[in-house]
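Example record

Each entry pairs one chain with its bound ligand, 2-amino-3-ketobutyric acid.
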Amino acid sequence: TARRSLPQLRRFASVTAPTPKILVTGALGQLGVGLVQLLRNKYGANNVISSDVRKPTAAMRSEGPFVFGDVLDYKQLESIVVNNDVTWIINLSALLSAVGEMHMDRALAINMQGFQNTLELAKRHQLRILCPSTIGAFGPSTPRDNTPDLTIMRPTTIYGITKVHVELMGEYYHRRFGVDFRSLRYPGIISADTEPGGGTTDYAVQIFHSALKDNAYKCYLGPDTALPMMYLPDCLNGTVSFLSAPTESLTQRTYNMAAFSFTPKEISAKIAERVKGFETTYEPDYRQAIADSWPRSLDDSIARKDWGWKNEYDLDGMVDDMLVRLRK
Ligand code: AKB
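Structure tokens for the complex follow.
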């Protein structure tokens, strides 16, 4: 039979698929807050359970179900899954690249054992599971420009090593046990309303806050360090679209996902065009070596072809929108 087109597959899937019941772990982080909102708009507030080891604000609590959820505690997570008839799990609990180097043991525990717990739950209770990967899963021996999906992966940070584990174990459970594992290699994510939590790309968010507050920024990466980046709304829309893509449309389980790349010098210039007198100085620290081991740009053409990934925001669009939001 002829292969169905993506819109045909999507129409078919949306008519036949039951509404999922989704558990999001690490839901109070940079991506979780917005992702939960988007999923609730699509599937209904009560069908998305937000969880974290921290307390949510009163406003978040009023928007839908929130429970304490610790990825290191298998039994506790399992009780949430069983008691609520959860069908999809999204594991956003992780220590990022910079903070991971400072707390190696915690990064290993949360990123690896925590993921392993959610993967085992997915196997035992037939859950669809999404756990992000990252450009940090690549390393210094990876081709750095237009990096393809399938290439050398020898990361040198604990974060990267644990994310290669996520990709390989997820794909293993998919092949061996039929687990519907999905992963996206996120670039640096730029967001206005939530803070990034200890990554190497965090400068790209801090620079906006400093520009508006101090009209100056001291950057911990050198001026010419190019990295792949993306605006949060694109990241979230893309993630929901990937998560709900019909299984038959996926030719692989882990995809590169990108929007644009820039250097600290380039983003500073874009901000200076809009914030008079803004200046950046440079004082590279240990994060420079991490950034130097990552790709400068990604080839995400397979994601665009398989499940229709498309970014709305280019660099200028992102800078304009960030400044509008942060000035409010
Ligand atoms: C980090 O910098 O560690 C993260 C990432 C690119 O995964 N933002």
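The mean pLDDT is 97.
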